[in-house]
Amino acid sequence: MDAPAPVLRMSGIGKQFPGVRALDRVDLRLLPGEVHALMGENGAGKSTLIKVLTGVHSVDEGAIELDGRPVAFGSPLEARQAGISTVYQEVNLCTNLSVAENILIGREPRRFGRIDWKRMRARARDLLARLELDLDVSAPLSSYSLAIQQMVAIARALDVEARVLILDEPTSSLDADEVGQLFRVMRRLKDEGIAILFVTHFLDQVYEITDRMTILRNGRLVGEYLTSELSQVELVAKMIGQELEALDKLHGEAGSFAEPLVEARGLGRPGAIDPFTLTIHEGQVVGLAGLLGSGRTEVARLLFGADHAGGGQVAIKGEPVSLRTPRAAMNHKIAFCSENRKRDGLIEDLTVRENIILALQATRGWARPVPREQQDELVGKYVKALRISPPDPEIPVRNLSGGNQQKVLLARWLILEPRLLILDEPTRGIDVGAKTEIQRLVAELSGGGVAVLFISAELEEVLRLSHKVAVLRDRRLIAELPNDDDLTKDVIMETIASGGRT
Amino acid sequence: MRRLLWPILALALLLLVNLIFTPGFFSIQLREGHLYGSLIDILRFGAPLILVSLGMTLVIATGGIDLSVGSIVAIAGALACLLIDQEQGVLVAVVLALGLSMLLGAWNGFLVAAVGIQPIIATLILMVAGRGLAQLITGGQIITVNEPGYKLIGGGYLLTVPFGVLIVLAVLAITAFLTRRLALGVLIESVGGNAEASRLAGIRSRGIIIMVYAFAALCAGVAGLMISSNVSSADGNNAGLWIELDAILAVVIGGTSLAGGRFSLGGTVIGALIIQTLTTTIYSVGVPPETTLLFKALVVTAVCLIQSQAFRDKVFHRRGRPAPPRPVAEEKVRVST
Which residues contact A435 (CB under 8 A, 6 or more apart)? Predict the structure, then answer.
């Protein structure tokens, strides 16, 4: 292939963190007008590479060249001024400010030292128009969906003369339409000659949008490939360094459960979810399917007592119970791994050990500490069983990658030995390897008699694991489908589309 | 331990400055069966501040702040002196004064945890109202008492050691036990680090927060007894005035973030000692009285700056701003395929 001169070239990049060699002689080059995927499992070094490139971390070894000239950025601001813009996975905007303020924050057009609001709104509208968006730019950002917020983040990144645009998992919280919209925008930017570095865990998206890809594994470069010349199976094998065994249905027979564990009757909360009735049996995996905002998380939160129910009853093993607080639910051995790890899950200040032990300690109260030996034993057991990496329980949990943080949360609940485990998007934003491990874990737990309520935006995953799929639409539970051979992705999608009226 | 490095260095530096100006500064003698010396004085006069700061540390670790501790210092001293003045006995006076302090602290905690008022506002209420309450107790007068048993708390000695220092050691030991031996510490850090995540992990944060404010007020109450006992009188107006600000400062110097989360008891003790040593230094160096406050502010600013990693990097290493691109590899880029 006769390639044009790369706009960006990183060569022999090395980065050392205390105790970890995060990057080891990694090369990356981006050509103008291409979408380039950066692939690898969690902890492979993708985020570190991006942070080195954008000046968040300094480079230990190796060189970065922009347009053939060596550069070194001391801060993300310098990188941006040089034309390298980044949109991070977790949207980091100020939701209380207006759309226009978010786009132009720090670069507000000024007149006589005062902010020129009129020009600012016009500029914001122009930038959004470039992304085919028409928003009320003076409305607070919080009034828009996560997907729109993501677009606003991209608009902000494009305001400077961007040569390179880095999209770090921009699609993990978007639905199919929104992904399509994002891709249209990406193609347009690509035609303008911008090099886009795209990080995602969705393989389909990689094949849909990218031209080339660079694969990392354990901080090392595996190689650079043309997307059209690498099959999905080869890609996965290169990412995890081994052949991935075919994951078929992991669940057993549908509809063979005798013991109802949790029965919710008419449980609901005004404005969040209409009253629903749902039975979960011992050892059963119940999948919740539905679009974003259809009420999946709301069902989970009611069953865990995270929100107060507006009405209805819950019975556990036939006994009526009151689940008014998370603590009450925990006393009935219900556990809940929330969707938003940062906000509702981890205590980032604390170590891995302290985070894992937290729920157990909470049930014992402050006066009865879990003895240190018991802590070390439990934590060691789960760090090993879930392959949490790095396997050092005394480092702050914020230093772990997304997938490993998810495993820490899982460990926190598993040591309580729950009877019902509610998993809200446990595999979102984590890599193929960790995803498979978590899925296998769910199957194992279910085999051991634990009931699991499994929420995921990926229907394949729901189908693979569940014995029964409950379908939600517009904050209503519209159908319960046994997962037999007739149940396919299409059937579920049709159910959602028809509102369960068939 | 590494985060205690800079506070300890700052304290050592301050002490060394004193040694230069006052050659006998480090000498400790035994006089009339009491330990005697400048270092002992720092501990003795610093005891109330250390106590208040210990309580403040836990409050700040939950993500809160307690502005009312100065008023509680005054209330505790006022009630104790009033009761002693009425011949109720020292023990009754101490117990009732501390009981009232804890009650007021629990009220703060209730406002914060159950009613949901921002800590700075919730405790501001008692900061203002508490001074009034203290004056109400003393009837607007300064109550003077003459009771050897009460004098022991703030001015006495036990086994050659100032009694106040022993109280501090005991409170420190109890606090360390509750937070580090028992699980209170990790639960406080968890609530302060991420309140919603803590709730979803099943932590009953309401009880913990109320307890922490009550504890802070109890510490302030003990400090109040110490201060009033030392001067054998209760002054509703001036006892413990601005001590809450010194305490907050001590906590921050000790390395606990005002945002809540991780806290360091050792750091707080060192922070409080730095502030007390600074006061001593001002006298021993002979700073003119009209400039003492300014001098104190400058030193505190310097101590805070020296602790900041970002500041040190900028001033001493200029790291984080690597050298501008060197024009070394000017050779043309190899176009590989």
Answer: A201, A403, A427, A461
